[in-house]
Amino acid sequence: MQAYGRAFARIYNLMWTRFANQVAPFIFDFYASTSVGKSNKSLLDLCCGTGQLAVHFLEKGFRVTGLDLSEHMLSIAKENALPYLVAGQAKFIQDDASHFALDERFGLVVSTFDALNHLENEQALQACFRCAHAVCDGYFIFDLNTRRGLRHWNNVEINDRSEDALIINHGFYDGVSNKAWTRITGFIREPNGLYERFDETVFNTAYEMENVRDMLIEVGWKDVQFARIQELGVSLSAPEQEERVWFAAKA
Ligand SMILES: C[S@@+](CC[C@H](N)C(=O)[O-])C[C@H]1O[C@@H](n2cnc3c(N)ncnc32)[C@H](O)[C@@H]1O
Fold first, then answer.
1. What is the mean pLDDT of residues 104-129?
2. Which structural domains are found in the chain, ordered by start?
3. Residue 127 to residue 208: CA distance in whole angstroms
């Protein structure tokens, strides 16, 4: 389990929100083109992080529930979605994506930015698929890093482009084992001008894309497709050749 810590959550909100902002319109357009998407405007965002994707759908009139393990990510998500929270259109809950049950049902369930690579192993991933299926009346869309994509983790990167933060990323992946690791350390500027040190170690579990499809089908998902984000409706035939694969499945 990997719930992001306090300072890292602030770094995330400062530096890593572009992904969710970029993919949200593609997911919205795909879902809006489906028959359930024309009438059901409800979204469950699993591993919602700091809530950027949630806000995109809230702005489009969706009722949104964001679920994440990290109280610190959720606290920032609540700030980012404050007007919608106050209006009762948004809800954020702290829970484990591989072990949750909700009374509500949703037209769309999503999980973005390789959040499901954060789960411990295939058992946890399939448990997540089962929980998601139990609350979904429409589509489940998520992305995973492939082994090919995780090979890029094997390096050191320094990001000193912002005055507000210094980030050092030490990644390790041997290309064959089931876990890729990255240690992210650095400093983030506090409102008082002082810098706080952060240190977060994150792993991604590497899965076989065909196994993931089989696990989805086993728990009841239908029409499972591998895709690219720009063309969620178009099936890819060689998913392991991609660095990141998007899955679209029907309840
Ligand atoms: C890479 S971030 C993605 C955040 C967001 N989906 C986005 O696109 O920006 C991964 C998120 O997964 C959360 N997370 C990790 N393991 C989790 C689990 N087992 N259940 C729920 N959330 C989890 C972390 O706290 C973090 O917010």
1. 98
2. 6-146+206-250 (3.40.50.150), 149-205 (2.20.25.110)
3. 17
- What pLDDT is recorded for position 4? 81
DSSP bridge partners of 144 = 245
DSSP string for residues in 160-205: --STTEEEEEEEE--SSSSEEEEEEEEEEE-TTS-EEEEEEEEEEE
pLDDT in tens, 193-221: 999 999 999 999 999 999 999 999 999 99
CA 123 to chain centre: 18
**Is the CB–ligand 1 distance for residue 135 below 6 Å?**
no
Pocket test for ligand 1, best of 8, 15, 16, 69 (most atoms within 8 A of CB): 69
Rounded distance between C-alpha atoms, residue 101 and residue 193, angstroms = 42
Buried-exposed string 71-89: b where 16+ CB fall within 10 A, e elsewhere: ebbbbbbbebbeebbeeee
Per-residue confidence (pLDDT) for residue 80, from 0 to 100: 98
Q: What is the SS3 assignment for 136? A: strand
Does pTM top 0.90 for this prediction?
yes
* pLDDT of amino acid 1: 57
Whole-number Å distance, alpha carbon 50 to ligand 1 midpoint, is 9
CA of 175 to the centre of ligand 1 (A): 23
Query: What CA–CA distance (Å, rounded) separates 218 from 39?
Result: 28
